[in-house]
Amino acid sequence: MTTLASAIRKHAPRRVVRFLRGAKGFGRRVACDVADLREKLSGRAQPLTPPRRMWELVGGGDADFHSLGQSQVKLLKAHGLQPYHQVLDVGSGIGRLASPLTQYLKAPGGFDGVEIIPEAVSWCQRVITSACPTFRFHRADVRNDRYNPAGRTPASSYVFPFADETFDFVFLGSVFTHMYAPDMRNYFSEIVRVMKPGGTCVISYYLLDVARRQQPAAPGSALRFDTALDGCWCAFPDLPEAAIAFERRIVEQLYEASGMRILELIRGNWDSSGRQDQDIVIAVKQSLTGS
Questions:
Q1: pLDDT class for 212, splitting at 50, 70, 90?
Q2: Residue 50 domain-assigned?
């Protein structure tokens, strides 16, 4: 089937290829709408859930909205998230983390999400903020070749719209995996700035080390970072920001230089399976006394 699809793309007129892609997309949207309607009619539809046709706006469309959100909440709670905390979700997408957190965070706790895809921000503001006013969502018009190619602001100079030392918890799920090194360093600096001393951040990466460099590509592995860029590596040279990796030692040095103490590094299996499970770094912002 893959060979057939490649042959069609190579030899068929462009209008035929566009038609086939459009038909496939239309069929997928219809299937999503039917599934949503079936859940609604059966009474199984859950509140604060975006339409299925939006699920692939950010991340894999086949990832279940609720199970992924609950797993993220479980991870944050395991590392100290409390109901009264102020949470920042950078790359808040369609509200996968926000939706389940509405059942956990209580006053004076609150939530701010930052996202570059306008449709995602609009839906979250209209649905989640309307139901839970302490959950706020902000559009960042940051340039990204994959998600926001017409963005006006380079990620390397974007300033988070928050005061210093605002947040107890900061979460970034699959954000630095789509950013060049200068962009990542700027975002990291902003993260440290807006975190309270003693605050915790949870960030996912693709991290490279000697072991991963030396091991052969596993059969069916999802990603292989073979193209070197300025300070990072990419898996798809034609669209580098689709998947970007960083050297583990460079990331660890960045944390140390920024006054961040790494508590745990959870190794993902993106290099040994067909899934793109990422590495996760949990760290705490040290106070002036170094605690």
A1: confident
A2: no
